[in-house]
What does this fold into?
Amino acid sequence: MPKTTLFFLLFYASLCFSQQSDFKHINFTKADRIANTTKTKRLYELNKLTYNLTNNLETDVEKLRAIYVWICNNIANDFRLYTLNERKRNRFEKDSLKLENWNSKFKKTLFKKLLKKKKTICTGYAYLLKEMCKIIGIESYMVNGFARTATVDFSKLTMPNHTWNVVKLNNKWYLCDPTWSTGISFPEEGRFQFIYNDGYFLADPELFFLNHFPADNQFSLLGETAPNFIEYTELPLIYGDAFTTIKEHISPNKMDHILKKNSVFTFQYLLKENQNINKIKFIIDNGASEKTIKPEFHKKNNILTLNHTFKNKGFFDVHLYLENKLIATYTFKITN
Amino acid sequence: MKTIPTFTTKQPTFILLGLFLSLFFFSSELSAQDLLVKGIVKGQTYEETEVLNGANIFLKGTNIGTSSNKKGEFTFPKRLKAGDILEVSYLGFITKRIKIGANSTYLKITLQEDDNQMLGALNSNKRFKSKRNKE
It folds into this structure.
């Protein structure tokens, strides 16, 4: 498809935000059950696998769901391949020919491993989802971009570091990130753990944007309101569990803040429906020690509002936890 | 001397029989155009060309398809007609469309590598910690 056409498609799609709640009326139980009971040792027969996953499902969104959940339950993150690729890409960063060469060789190893061992890294997940979507006739693209986690240093990040997907359902485009839905890596231990995160399946574009900046900005699905890269790096830092707990990060809209001592600061979030949030805490770290604070809060129409007064001078990392799940981090410089 | 009965085409039964037989004749003509399609799928990268194990081969617009084996070979499960289009794809390669011709019984398909970069950001749940300058 020509790029311009795609642009218009995406642009119009973005006029109304596309998200999982568009499919509230659809129950994913059946799709999930099929995904959970379908097993295959290798992936050499993707046609057959995809057919088995989707054959008994009616709607495109259920078919996509079965494929997505299957991928997230079965494809492990290959930590060793990831490290190897990072090292080589950094080494060849300035030499495009060598980088191309490495990429080509690595790609081959990666896909062989994916089909044989069901292990991969981000782009592998995105490819697999795209390929399986194609088999059942759902249009999708891979999106390369700059993803953000606590350990990403934007001052050193010069090339895209992550790949995710956009998929088209009922003529609207939706976002999903199969890699981050699959589980969590523990870099120090060189270990990966499957933990399905539903929040990255047909994610809300605004929330998704907080840690996914597409290299091609039409894929943000935010249309012209999408912040630029510098603005992106200044947004609050959110974590995987934010996607299972909140629907919208209302305020603050920056990560770093400078405040006068004794001023009150307000945090506000739109919670996902049916979230019963009672345990709310901030862990405030001054660099040497940390303390836990139960902020004053109120809830109205699923909007959670928190207030906190910073009484001491200093520089603090402020981590928000809802129901003991890490949601977001902000920094505060408190002056006299 | 016995006379051999001869059939005259004027008899309607025989005309009908002839028509009936010609049906078989034509239909066998048609089925001769149904092709059993086999082939081999290879992938070409910057460095080399090698067979692809697990490439997807599809009849366009249907869910009839198959996958290539360890040697890159496949036999399409449905007989095809000239003009049918097969879509051949493999992860990391550009999908190719092959139009079946009257003599396409053995296809040699070579896919070209796509130019997407392989990337990966780890999804770690590590909590952020500010870098502080020691004063």
